[in-house]
Amino acid sequence: MLYRSGFLVLALGATRVLGALFQGPTEEVLKGSYDVIVVGGGAGGGAMASRLSEDPDIRVLLIEAGSSDITNLNSTVPGLANNLVMSAFDWNFTTTPQAGYNGRSIDYPRGFVLGGSTAINQMLFCRGTVDDYDRWARVTGDEGWSWKSLAPFIFAVDHMTPPVDHHNTTGEFNPVLHKNGPVSISVDSLILDTNTRVLETTQQLPDLFPFNLDYNSGTSVGVAWKQNAILNGHRVTSATSYLAQAMNRKNLDVVVNTRVTKVFPVGTEDGKPVFRGVEFAQTADGPRHTLKATQEVILSAGSLKTPHILMLSGIGDSAHLSSFGIKTIVDLPGVGQNLHDHAFLGNSWTVNSTNTLDDLQRNATAAAEALALWKANATGPLSVAAGSSQFGFVRIPNATAFFQQFGVEDPSAGPSSGHIEHIPTNSYVSTTVPIPAEGHFFAIITAVISPTARGNVTLRSSDPFDAPLINPALLGNDVDLAIMREGVKAARAFVKAPAWSGYIISEFGEFGNATTEDALNEYIRNNSATVDHPVGSVAMGKDESAPLTPDLKVRGTVGLRVVDASAFPFIPSGHTQGPTYILAERAAHLVRADLKK
């Protein structure tokens, strides 16, 4: 049954705010008049709806495919994030067989709830680097995407809050770099006994693993305290931050449990189709409804669903569309191309300690005690995201020469960006081999943070309720495999520091047998997965081949814009929720300026 929930209550600490929420397309919504319709309630869409509705003269509708259950326990408790994969809050996508993974298909989590992937990710907050954004500026020909020009939007996103244990955080971040944005972030409580060893390693091996006071300064290389989208031990999402600030505004409506099936033209302007129409439905066999924005439709459905919606709407490669009986309205071969992501690998060692997080994964009593502690005061091991309090970015030494052997230029954005990410973790980590019944572990997650391979998103059918075909081309060439190999070697070097003497026992499982380059390659291919950072599938650029113009408009159309990570021309050398918020901050500025013309 469709109904209007008269008020949406979003709880964030002691804050309660009220606003209109619809559990489906009611008559009130269908008869409404909206200047802007935003599709998708994740980082991009939540920020856009919030910032646009700050102007009381702009009437905004946000349509989210998933539910409004933003306070479900698995999402709210940082340490339960892994329970969200392949759940009711996940689109439950899988990839095509990945050649770089010896033909394995892998789960590809994407948030299916208000808040999008900010509601199911591991909460790590990164902005990206000076070189990341300066490269965006070069490839788009728009200096507005440079770090310097974006600074007001970068600092508009987050603010630092005390960790839940309220320890003295001096020396764990630079407070000057964090202003008063809506997204609350914090460093972790002092729970993990590996923290001291990680920090000692930066002193003992400073040339390889220097300490970085604040990786969100624009230079990420080095080992730093993680900054997480967590407030008072609770996850922070675009719904509990940006939207929570906006839901008391009369000019914002939010509809959930409603999937946009396509956008459609409502006329032409200067010979271009005006895509201000949106079609949506709640079920595959249910009624289709339509609405028309008076000004703009903004697709913020993410790097997988945004190109999917565009192709279903007749915007994409004409040959591909025609093979599914879809009439081409705008021939844009770049739609769905350029998909790339950060490949992930968990590397585990057995350790001489019982003070790890492993028992939370295999001991029901320990897990129940940890949850009871979190419910009591939001403290304890479940208040820590991803089982880690520090992480780092590593550059490959002599990078120019290293990449020349493959006949390619250094794929990183520049010296402020890493090639590899390391996440030291106080537990066993693997996406392919279950945790052993006994033993205690330390792991270093390695990730290819500057990949070169490119994949795509394509249609499986013309049914909008069919998932698209997703090929992120993870470790899709010898270059990316070599970067991951260097990441594993660097992880092995990390635990050779004196700080780990007497603690590390041995490498575990197939990792321990990967002693030759061939064996290491097989270990990597057999065990890698994804950091869940798909980007670039509807990239902006200055060339006509780019699906988006530098101001995020879909090329060859009027009234249609994309504001999510699919617009990134290159993946940032860090986690992607922060850059998506930053993109949306500038996008809202661009849209509001256009609406005033």
From TrEMBL:
Residue intervals of the Glucose-methanol-choline oxidoreductase N-terminal domain: 302-316
Signal peptide boundaries: 1-19
Any GO MF annotation of the entry: flavin adenine dinucleotide binding
Spans traversing the lipid bilayer: none
Cofactor(s) needed by this chain: FAD
Keywords, sorted A to Z: FAD, Flavoprotein, Signal
Active site location: H533, H575
Domain of life where this protein originates: Eukaryota
Keyword Flavoprotein: yes
Residues reported in the UniProt entry to bind FAD: V113, V260
UniProt record similarity statement: Belongs to the GMC oxidoreductase family.
Protein name: Alcohol oxidase
Taxonomic source organism: Dichomitus squalens
